[in-house]
Amino acid sequence: MGIKPLIFIHGGAGNYRLFSEEALQRRRVLLNEIAVKSFEVLISKSALDAVEYAVKLMEDSGAFNAGLGSVLTLNKRVEMDAGIMDGKTLNVGAVACISNFGNPISIARRIMEETDHILIAGVSAERLAEFFGFKPDSSLITEEKLERFKKVYDAWIKGERKRMLKIREIVMSSPDLFNFLDTVGAVAIDSDGNVASAVSTGGYWLKLPGRIGDVPLVGCGFYADNEAGAASASGVGEAIAKVTLSKMCCDFMRNGFSAQEACEKAIAVLTRRIGDNTAGIIAVDKTGGYGFAFNTAGMCRSIFIEGMEKPAVAIFPEEPFIVD
Ligand code: GLY
């Protein structure tokens, strides 16, 4: 039997128990819509096109911490990272510390397809984006974000939030600092058995200017190889990078584990070596199996597999997430 195409997207791992029901519902609706739209692209085009499109829609939504919804650095700037990988060719494109463009994922793809490099950062990435024809977007810093910044910053100054210490200490002592970890990502497999992965983020509140996390680093925030599968991660970038979470997950699949087993094993290693409440991951294996795991309170996720009437959507571990 042939492979059933599937698209699996995530809107980030984090402490969604702190969110209002309205905010959770907004995410569920978006996840559902974006899974449907990107599945159409998967069927008519390819896994690579589908993951880019899914992440682009999440960047555009303003509801997740990527693109329009990106959080602010310590000096009130937006600095975004994104990465994409084609499992058929092992081609990679990534962009880091980019400020004025709404769709870092599409810039990452152009870097993959039109340069000799895999990762371009900062001002040079912005110049290249303009050369590619992307239009700068001045709407990324909003009044709402500046108000939220003030709350987070004031709490930090008062000592209610410990930060700029080692990341583990931040996570252990002040987990709500990271309650907006909605990095977005997607993995897909098409009917030819080609897999792809994409990921995009604004990082996290009050990060130091110039800080680059896991997202643009191949093998950390994303990885795809037709001989193994594809994975896309979300969480504390420094923790994810230390264990090269996405590559580790793909290597478990390469060694014969299913996508679900690989996700569970990768998150178990992360939890044991770095700590709890650090990350989540989604994956597809080369047979078309899917998996996910997280050690945070929740992870926004949605999956659409050929033959389903509508996508499955869930945030918390106890929610049903059944697809067949
Ligand atoms: N995983 C997103 C970040 O840490 O930047």
Shape: globular
Could you tell me the strand content as a percent range? 15-25%
**CATH hierarchy, class:** Alpha Beta
Give the radius of gyration.
18 Å
Bound molecules: glycine
Proportion in helices: 25-40%
List the total number of helices. Answer: 9
Describe the 3D structure.
By secondary structure, the protein is of the alpha+beta class. The chain has one domain (6-141, 180-314): Glutamine Phosphoribosylpyrophosphate, subunit 1, domain 1 (4-Layer Sandwich), CATH 3.60.20. 35% of the residues lie in helices and 23% in strands. It has nine helices and twelve strands. The strands form two sheets. The chain has an eight-stranded mixed beta sheet. A hairpin with a 3-residue loop joins strand 7 and strand 8 (229-235). Helix 1 packs antiparallel against helix 2 (47-61), helix 2 (47-61) runs antiparallel to helix 3 and helix 8 (245-254) packs across helix 9 (259-273). The longest helix has 24 residues, at 21-44. It starts with 5 loop residues before the first strand and ends in a 10-residue tail after the last strand. The site of glycine has 12 residues, from strand 8 and helix 7.
